[in-house]
Design a protein that fits this description.
The protein is of the alpha+beta class. The two termini are 29 Å apart. It is 24% helix and 29% strand. About 6% of the residues have low confidence. A hairpin with an 8-residue loop joins strand 5 and strand 6. Strands 1, 2, 3, 4, 5, 6, 7 and 8 form an 8-stranded mixed beta sheet that branches.
Length: 180
């Protein structure tokens, strides 16, 4: 489902597979529902500071010959995250929250979605997922995802609130504009 955005990230940004209304994963178990397909965003890390990539063709200074280098002198690839709205099942107010979902979570979701029992065609997702976040784990082990077997509708008031939030593409465009 996110394949076209992943390819665009590769083509446009040189990336590879790798607030009050803002969701941040807490250490341990996080039960969420992804409400919107969202948009992939690449971030370059230079001296431990993140810079939103606005694209190779748009002149981002952190790609190509000017890309930051890793310890071996190779260009570092940007970190890719999915910006989307989620429903945090632990948050009692039940409002859509903007979230940055690690690419490793997206990859795990795609694995589940390849199975008939967990596939779906549109958002919101028809089931919750539990993402276990371990802050001090190795990068590939920080996020573990388990899909919930029960499919249930998202409450109408959450869908109404989702209609009123700033669309993800506008959030992402503002972020890229600030980076330029």
């Amino acid at each position: 489902m996110w394949e076209s955005q992943q390819q665009e990230m590769q083509d446009r940004y040189g990336a590879s597979a790798g607030g009050a209304n803002y969701f941040k994963f807490k250490e341990g178990r996080n039960r969420i529902r992804i409400l919107d397909i969202g948009e992939m965003v690449a971030t370059h890390f230079v001296s431990n500071k993140g810079y939103t990539c606005f694209g190779i063709m748009e002149g981002c200074p952190y790609v190509g010959a000017d890309a930051p280098k890793d310890d071996d002198g190779n260009p570092k690839k940007p970190s890719v995250r999915l910006y989307t709205y989620i429903l945090d099942r632990d948050n009692k107010d039940g409002q859509p929250l903007l979230a940055e979902i690690a690419y490793s979570v997206v990859k795990q979701l795609q694995t589940f979605m390849a199975e008939k029992d967990y596939s779906f065609e549109k958002f919101p997702m028809p089931y919750d997922i539990v993402v276990t976040f371990t802050k001090n784990a190795a990068p590939n082990d920080k996020y573990k995802v388990v899909p919930m077997a029960t499919r249930e509708e998202v409450p109408g008031e959450v869908l109404e609130a989702l209609e009123k939030v700033t669309p993800v593409h506008q959030v992402v465009e503002r972020k890229k504009a600030r980076a330029q």
